[in-house]
């Protein structure tokens, strides 16, 4: 491990926690990426039968306190059940941040507590855990597993790198980052980080050995030997910088790539599972909007990392012998490309193509009432099931993808984690907490419009992600913003899209995103301050450059600045009423949404222009759509 200067003394203990994960098998590291403190086996755990560290004990006590305070204080008087729901949300958020329980177990807390506090029934709470997006995740994840099992991504990366006669540190960094970015667009970014980090670490070790051999070559006398010793230290430092650059590059590129598709990262999946939002979100439209922002994040990350670590590097003109040795060892182990790998690659391309073309495909399967039968879920699973049908040539008598491989590598806890976010969102609606929170958030959001509003919400999502991690930030933040949109009668997409994108900008801390945890654990030289300094610069530049692009794209692609849409009215916190008027500063409509007011116990609602209506007039007249 690299020596620590005085500047690292305060964070040395924090960094040690991540280093303790470095010897962990990839199967466990896949879970430790989301909960590093839980898997930190070398830490002292004096509490709760030697199960908890001080951090977890503090989180447990704080979580219980945050659960009890809203119930006792009763800050929301017009919707009594919203107080325990607020406590449940704070409890889950606290348990996620402090890792009191495994994050997947914490996601199950709402289904236990919501019925006990009479917020909703056990049956309804349980049903909230399963949405169509989880079937889509299953279909995509199965193809990802097949790709990882066949080593095709690593084979492609090695071929790309070995094609260069000589390479500079900058070109090597670009190849690794570009590979991580492209793979993370179509493959789970945790799997990509697990695949590329050992490869990068072995290359750095080999490069360090080669640099030492070059320095220790011809010597002339003792004085020359002293100069060589100095050069050896300098080159060793340069190689360490190369290693840090490669590891940070893989993590940042994986985060940027996961943003580009709806199934690329957890925040996108949480968004996709929101109420009725699938009517307007699809794979093609999201990628058309998010891919340019993802590309900006990739380019900025590369520029910042290169400028900080490699701009003045002395490691120029390195030979390709190191890469050739790596490739020879890889081929000796797995052999040449097999038919199985070709089939898996073809299925992966087919899956992406079908998801991209889903709007046109669904148009061919329409019911008598105009309902569309075919969705992303069916198309993703169609491709995944093909892998269980095609026979393997590597293991005759078995399919290309075996169920044992699925059991070994599929993260079933991910489905529970996503479901926990859906359950909290459902509890927001049923308890009235969505209306109460919207009332508090509305004045702050109403202060800004257009690009400024987009940037402020993007900044909010980004800031929450650095502190609470992308999982906790998206799970708690998105339901609150959706409620705020109903209260302001603004299109929910104008809040939800930038907040979700911001949850992918987890650059500042190792705990901000799962790929960060993996590279921190796998690297011998990466320090917490490397993340903090490099991540802060990257985050600010991505916000400054990516924010305006996002603001310009979300409106034409998703019509995010259009009047409040009917699909967003849930008949719990909003009614759709046949009242004509002018909304959004000049758009004439024949009917519009009317958000229920928390201080009237649901008897009054408010239009976009602030007009209050009696809801019973519309309910009794059966005018509600």
Topology summary:
Layout: H1 12-19, H2 26-32, H3 54-73, H4 82-98, H5 103-106, H6 109-116, H7 122-127, H8 132-150, H9 152-162, E1 166-167, H10 169-186, H11 189-215, H12 221-259, H13 266-272, H14 283-310, E2 318-319, H15 321-334, H16 339-356, H17 358-362, H18 376-386, H19 403-409, H20 412-431, H21 433-446, H22 450-488, H23 493-502, H24 514-522, H25 528-558, E3 574-577, E4 581-583, E5 587-589, E6 592-596, E7 604-606, E8 612-614, H26 615-620
Antiparallel strand pairs: 1-2, 3-6, 4-5, 6-7, 7-8
Helix pairs in contact: 3-4, 4-6, 4-20, 4-22, 6-20, 8-16, 8-18, 9-10, 9-15, 10-11, 10-12, 10-14, 11-12, 11-24, 12-14, 12-24, 13-22, 14-25, 16-18, 20-22, 21-22, 22-23, 22-25, 23-25
Offer a few descriptive terms.
8 strands; two-stranded antiparallel ribbon; 4-stranded antiparallel beta sheet; 64% helix; disordered N terminus; single chain; mainly alpha; 625 residues
The overall strand count is: 8
End-to-end span in angstroms? Answer: 64 Å
Relative strand content: under 5%
Low-pLDDT residue spans = 1-16, 218-230
Mean pLDDT comes to 78
**Strands of the largest sheet, in order across it?**
3-6-7-8
Radius of gyration (CA) equals 26 Å
Q: Characterize the quaternary organization of these chains.
A: single chain
Provide the structure class: mainly alpha
Q: Provide a count of the helices.
A: 26
Residue share in helices? Answer: 55-70%
Q: How would you characterize the largest beta sheet?
A: 4 strands, antiparallel
Give the overall shape: globular
């Amino acid at each position: 491990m690299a020596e620590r200067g005085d500047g690292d003394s305060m964070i040395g203990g924090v960094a040690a926690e991540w280093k303790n994960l470095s010897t962990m098998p990839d199967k466990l590291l896949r879970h430790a990426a989301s909960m590093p403190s839980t898997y930190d086996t070398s830490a002292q755990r004096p509490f709760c039968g030697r199960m908890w560290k001080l951090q977890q004990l503090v989180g447990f006590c704080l979580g219980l306190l945050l659960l009890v305070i809203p119930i006792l204080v009763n800050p929301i008087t017009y919707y009594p059940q919203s107080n325990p729901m607020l406590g449940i949300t704070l409890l889950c958020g606290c348990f996620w941040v402090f890792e009191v329980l495994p994050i997947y177990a914490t996601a199950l807390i709402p289904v236990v507590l919501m019925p006990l506090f009479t917020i909703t029934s056990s049956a309804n709470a349980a049903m909230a855990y399963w949405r169509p997006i989880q079937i889509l995740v299953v279909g995509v994840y199965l193809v990802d597993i097949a790709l990882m099992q066949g080593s095709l991504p690593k084979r492609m990366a090695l071929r790309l790198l070995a094609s260069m006669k000589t390479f500079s540190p900058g070109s090597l960094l670009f190849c690794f980052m570009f590979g991580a970015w492209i793979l993370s667009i179509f493959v789970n970014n945790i799997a990509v980080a697990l695949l590329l980090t050992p490869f990068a670490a072995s290359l750095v070790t080999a490069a360090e050995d080669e640099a030492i051999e070059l320095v220790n070559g011809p010597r002339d006398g003792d004085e020359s030997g002293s100069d060589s010793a100095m050069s050896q230290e300098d080159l060793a430092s340069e190689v360490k910088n190369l290693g840090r650059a490669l590891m940070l590059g893989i993590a940042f590129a994986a985060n940027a790539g996961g943003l580009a598709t709806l199934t690329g990262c957890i925040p996108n999946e949480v968004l996709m599972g929101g109420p009725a939002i699938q009517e307007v979100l699809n794979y093609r439209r999201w990628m058309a909007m998010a891919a340019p922002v993802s590309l900006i994040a990739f380019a900025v990350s590369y520029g910042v990392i290169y400028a900080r670590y490699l701009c003045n590097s002395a490691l120029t003109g390195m030979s390709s012998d190191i890469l050739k040795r790596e490739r020879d060892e890889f081929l000796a182990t797995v052999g040449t490309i097999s038919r199985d790998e070709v089939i898996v690659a073809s299925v992966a391309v087919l899956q992406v193509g079908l998801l991209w073309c889903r709007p046109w495909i669904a148009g061919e399967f329409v019911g008598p009432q105009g309902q569309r039968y075919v969705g992303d879920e069916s198309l993703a699973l169609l491709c995944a099931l093909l892998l269980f049908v095609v026979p393997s040539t590597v293991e005759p008598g078995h399919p290309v993808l075996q169920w044992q491989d699925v059991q070994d590598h599929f993260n079933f806890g991910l489905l529970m984690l996503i479901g926990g976010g859906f359950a909290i969102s459902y509890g927001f609606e049923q308890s009235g907490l969505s209306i109460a929170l919207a009332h508090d958030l509305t004045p702050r959001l109403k202060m800004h419009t257009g690009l400024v509003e987009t940037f402020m919400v993007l900044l909010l999502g980004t800031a929450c992600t650095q502190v609470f991690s992308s999982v906790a930030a998206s799970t708690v933040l998105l339901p609150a913003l959706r409620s705020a949109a109903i209260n302001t009668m603004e299109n929910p997409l104008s809040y939800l899209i930038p907040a979700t994108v911001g949850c992918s900008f987890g650059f500042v801390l190792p705990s901000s995103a799962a790929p960060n945890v993996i590279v921190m654990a796998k690297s011998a030289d990466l320090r917490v301050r490397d993340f903090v300094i490099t991540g802060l610069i990257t985050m600010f530049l991505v916000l400054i450059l990516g924010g305006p692009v996002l603001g310009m794209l979300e409106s034409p692609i998703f019509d995010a600045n259009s009047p409040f849409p009917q699909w967003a009215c849930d008949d719990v916190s909003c009614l759709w009423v046949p009242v004509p008027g002018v909304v959004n500063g000049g758009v004439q409509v024949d009917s519009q949404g009317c958000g229920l007011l928390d201080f009237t116990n649901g008897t009054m609602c408010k239009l976009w222009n602030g007009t209050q209506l009696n809801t019973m007039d519309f309910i009794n007249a059966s005018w509600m759509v």
